[in-house]
Specification:
The protein is an all-alpha fold. It is 60% helix and 0% strand. It has one domain. It is globular, with a radius of gyration of 20 Å.
Length: 279
């Protein structure tokens, strides 16, 4: 895929222009110029990702908790299975401590795209729509595969589980799981599980903005799969499957779909599981 402008430097400038635009859009709206304008672009981008990540996490978590625990009380989740406020505040605390580190990964990815180290392209019209959709499908398959095995090894390699992933698995019952548990990880654990998104950029041509949107969608998705509500949308790896993961520790490592667990023999269906009665 050749640069469509006068040369590689002009092509890479489009990534810089996009970063500047997104930084102005969010930081310029929420912060006085004296706070963020003097910062180097790398730190502006990190600050934008951090504020955006915090907003996505808190707004999606508060909205979903309000809806299922209060507005639809005892409809989706039995009253005695609603997590305590103390449990949810602990999850928020863990996530907020990790959030600055989480946001370093997409920031570094953007910087590497700007200096031409990735296979990213800056504009959708750089390729055909068919090619975009094919690359996007390959990207998602790669991410599914990578997250599955990263998550599985975080369980299978005992030191990784003990020192990293166990932080997340203290939430192992329906009345301790909530949408706020979705990002309540040890910082390195969260980075490792998101790493396939970034590795893909060096292998697969990906529209950089689409990659960033996928990262933020993932933050919303993790809230959804920790609400203990089994939506029964095959082949989606919904909360019914993921709750089993939190109770058995040995099944349903996948992220968006059940396909990787099906392929590698770790799938456990909520409808065939006694734990499914809790959903």
């Amino acid at each position: 895929m050749a640069p469509p402008m006068d040369g590689p430097s002009d092509y890479r400038q489009l990534f810089v222009d996009d970063a500047d635009f997104y930084n102005r859009l969010l930081l310029g709206t929420l912060l006085p110029d004296c706070v963020w304008v003097p910062l180097p672009r790398f730190f502006q981008t990190w600050l934008r990702n951090y504020i955006g990540g915090v907003l996505v996490y808190l707004l999606s978590g508060f909205f979903w908790c309000f809806y299922i625990y209060y507005w639809k009380r005892n409809v989706y989740v039995p009253t005695d299975a609603i997590p305590s406020r103390k449990a949810m505040l602990l999850q928020i605390s863990v996530a907020m401590k990790a959030m600055p580190w989480y946001c370093a990964l997409p920031t570094i990815s953007e910087y590497l795209a700007e200096i031409g180290w990735t296979k990213c392209f800056p504009r959708l019209n750089n390729i055909s729509w068919l090619a975009f959709l094919v690359y996007l499908a390959i990207y998602q398959i790669f991410v599914e595969f990578g997250i599955y095995w990263m998550h599985r090894e975080l369980h299978d390699i005992k030191p990784l589980y003990k020192y990293l992933h166990a932080t997340h698995h203290v939430y192992n019952k329906q009345n301790t799981l909530s949408p706020f548990a979705g990002l309540a990880f040890h910082p390195l654990d969260g980075i490792l599980q998101a790493l396939p998104h970034s590795i893909a950029l060096f292998i697969i041509p990906v529209h950089l903005t689409t990659h960033l949107v996928a990262i933020f969608i993932e933050a919303i998705w993790t809230a959804n799969i920790h609400d203990c509500i089994h939506a029964k949308l095959w082949p989606v790896m919904g909360a019914g499957y993921h709750t089993i993961h939190h109770t058995t520790y040995r099944h349903n490592y996948g992220h968006f779909t059940i396909w990787m667990d099906w392929m590698f023999g770790t799938l456990r269906d909520p409808l065939d599981d006694d734990g499914g009665k809790l959903m």
